[in-house]
Amino acid sequence: MAKPGVCAPLSGGVWYGPFMRPALLVRYWWVPAALFLSAAVLIVLNGVALLSPAFMSAWVGIFPWVAPLASFGFILGAILGLVIVGALVLFLLGFRILGAFLVIPAAIVSLFIGGGFIVGLMIGVVSSLLVLSQRPRL
Questions:
Q1: pLDDT digits over 70-88, tens only?
Q2: What is the 3-class SS of 68-107, one letter each residue?
Q3: How does DSSP classify residue 7?
Q4: Phi–psi pair at 63, nearest 5 degrees
């Protein structure tokens, strides 16, 4: 029997002080960093893929607003990828919240080139929300 005032797991879970241990996605610092990097890569790859006429014609069928961008989609993808890599550098330097707030708009603006294959958009937003939900390190 547990002593009064001491937390003990009831169902075999692991306790972290008075609270349950945080989930994997929030526990390790490298998970959001890896997600930032994968979002940047997907958004840049989407911009590069837009240079192919076959991919461009298929992508315009899904996202009609991509057609007027033409080769500007490549430039936009490269710039948005660099913004997310810059946010990753800020994240690694300890400016976690600032990095997260740079990734969210960059990921949403990537919707103009197809969202970085849509997965890049979702990964960017989810990783930013993970960073914002983490407790600050002291």
A1: 789 899 999 999 999 999 9
A2: HHCCHHHHHHHHHHHHHHHHHHHHHCCCHHHHHHHHHHHH
A3: -
A4: -120, 95
Q: Of 102, 80, 107, 82, give the one whose Cα is nearest residue 91.
A: 102
Overall size of the chain counted in residues? 138
Q: Is residue 40 part of a domain?
A: yes
pLDDT tops 70 at residue 16: no
The answer to whether residues 32 and 130 touch, using CB atoms and an 8 Å cutoff, is yes
- Residue 133 has which token pair? 């939900």
- Residue 101 tokens read as 């707030």
Query: Residue 89 falls within a domain, yes or no?
Result: yes
Per the domain annotation, does 138 fall within a domain? no
Whether 7 shows a pLDDT value over 60: the answer reads: no
Give the pLDDT of residue 85. 96
Evaluate if pTM is beyond 0.85: no
pLDDT value, residue 71: 82
Residue among 119, 127, 79 at smallest CA distance from 103? 127
Query: Does residue 127 belong to any structural domain of this protein?
Result: yes
Sign of CA dihedral 72, 52, 50, 60: positive
- The total domain count for the chain is 1
Domain that residue 62 falls in: 23-133
